[in-house]
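Predict structure. Chain length: 330.
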Amino acid sequence: NKQSRWGSCYKNDKTQMLKILIQKQRNDLFDWVFEQKITNYDVIGESLRDIISCSVSNGNVHALVSIIDKGFNICDLHEYRSLQSIAASTGFYHLLKFLNRIGCRNTCDGNSYYGNNNSHYVTYGNLKIFKYCIKTSPNEDLIYNALKTAIVLDNAKMYNYFFDQHSDKITSSIISMTLSKSLEKKKNDLFYSLIEKFKKVCPLVFDKYNWNTSLLEIACRYGKIEPFYFIIILIDKAKMPSFTNCIFEAASSNLLEICKYLVDNKYNINYVDLFKKLSKVPNVSSEVISFLFNSSGLEFDKSLFLPLLSPAIRSSNVNFVEFLVERSIF
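Prediction complete.
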């Protein structure tokens, strides 16, 4: 037990010392401690993951090279995609390239390994890192995630670079995602600017883009009335898509204007499903609830509406409860 405690103390002291030297970029002292004072690699080996992470997060390539020169494979000692993420999220572009190069030699297909979430390559705001991510990412999903984060963070330099320089990689799914995220913004500027951008850089892909109700639902959810009218005229009504979720999102946001538009223009709405969903949403106005019921053509059937009382109460949907009580639900 004494030997075990001594080993643990030894390991922790040396690990902490090395991490401090890495942080302070005291490479000469790091080399001396690592080479001269650490003779029991079985002890220090367990802590190399911490030392490697510290080296990457502080941009200390010298320490990484020293560890590699001692015969340690940092890719075996540490989850590799985590190292790349650390380097990218802390803005160390050249270190990221270094890790990518040595990582390529440790993968079967010659590609560096990226995790499913490339947000780390965007969050620091380094355009070079974003470019490198786009250049070396092996598939669309990884580019998709990085671009999504750039849109969310309003990093115009990044997403404009992608659209202008990599228009051949723009797909329908990327168009859907970027337009969806633009509808979540407070203003509509990005939504319309993206449309103009797609018309310019990828006209063939954009011309074939299938405008569907999913974008319409997001517009309703975030109260985007102008984009709603822009999108709905592009949806092929002849295909009889369901607009139940659209009017649900509009009602949940108390957008009576949009509810009236969908009803008056006889879009396909399942009112039974709509009221089941609305019973679980708080703060829907009495005006919206009454309008939808009066437009639905439904009879006030207790077998339909009585089961909606409990979810309405649980969700504190006061107006919906009042709607039921006023119609003598009991």
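Summary: The two ends are 73 Å apart (CA to CA).
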